[in-house]
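Encode chain A's predicted structure.
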Amino acid sequence: MEIAPDFSLINPDSFRNGHPHDAYDQMRSEAPVWRHPGSEKQPAFWALTRFDDIRSVSLDAENFTSALGFRIPTDSFSSMDPEIGKVLSRFMLAMDNPEHNDFRQIVASAFMPSALGKFEARIRTSVEALIASLQGRGEVDVVTEVAAIVPIKTVCAIMGVPEEDEWRVFEFTNAVFGADDPDYSPTLAEANERYMAIFDYGWDLLERRRRHPQDDLMTRVAHATVGGRPLTEIEQKSFFSNMIAAGNETTRSSLGGAIWALAKYPDQRQLLVNDPQMIARSLTEILRWFSPVYQMARTAKRDVEVGGTLVRQGERVAMLYGAGNHDPEVIADPHRLDLHREGASRHLTFGYGVHHCLGSRLALMQLKLILEAFLGAFPGYELAGEPSYIRSNLVRAMKAMPIRLNG
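Encoded structure for chain A:
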């Protein structure tokens, strides 16, 4: 049976226009646990498109591990410098419990509501400055001039990155998620070089925090111990690159996605313009509908059945979040944005189980505050073109999206 002949998770061009929902729908209907072909560099694996199967694997730590890879890489990404692979293999996303919990606890308290409260005023100030910078403008790019600004300032403040280096975070994020995009990494050598620059910058910042501790996350990482030992250099570099990228990219993409979605559905946008108090509870539906992460993966620790299909020990399973978030068995008329929808809070966007997104509360706070201010200032904005996306098989990251602020 030929399933979705134009779709390959290994090939990022499958996501050139975002989630390929037609392919997802076909897979879910005909082979919801689909044997995805491999390549010259990778073995075949299983692709999951049903909500319940994805959630089940996410929660099944007994039968599945993240330690053998938390994503399905592209072939070119698999060819990157082995030193990069060493750092990525120590991401928290690539750890199982109890190790994952030990590392997560180093920074977890910084993302609790009581700790995030002290950043709300700072975020509001950043949002006010953002809106002021847009006043009187005609056409702007959502990604670089709206969506990237506040998340980068916020994550830099929390982590302890100096304000004058915020521009580097934007470049670092593009380097991490654009390793397969010729606009950001024209050659494999340049992709390697940009990754290494992230690690070098992070290590330099950590060295400064060892000498001069401050009240920020990098000081925690620089002085942390696990099991009575200090973190290794690779583990510290991993912490920095993981949090600096994940800490702003998905928020940036989700904000761009929200602005795009509300332009596509002006009736839903008008609901929020008329009643701004709806914005906070509408975010679950927007995140479900847009789904900023394409996939995560697990590896079977033993033979196990998933959705009626036998997955053998050592085989990889790709969880297609956008497909699960648009599963009609869970969400009626899933391709429609409905801000009054019941049950949207079950979305997969932040993950399930031990790897549930550490920064989800921070992301929701920023999205709420920015959308409130943006819709209040520019309720009639219009698209001036469709979004373009970073060439990636991991995240739905926008490169650019032009809008007219006073449509």
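The chain has 16 helices and 14 strands.
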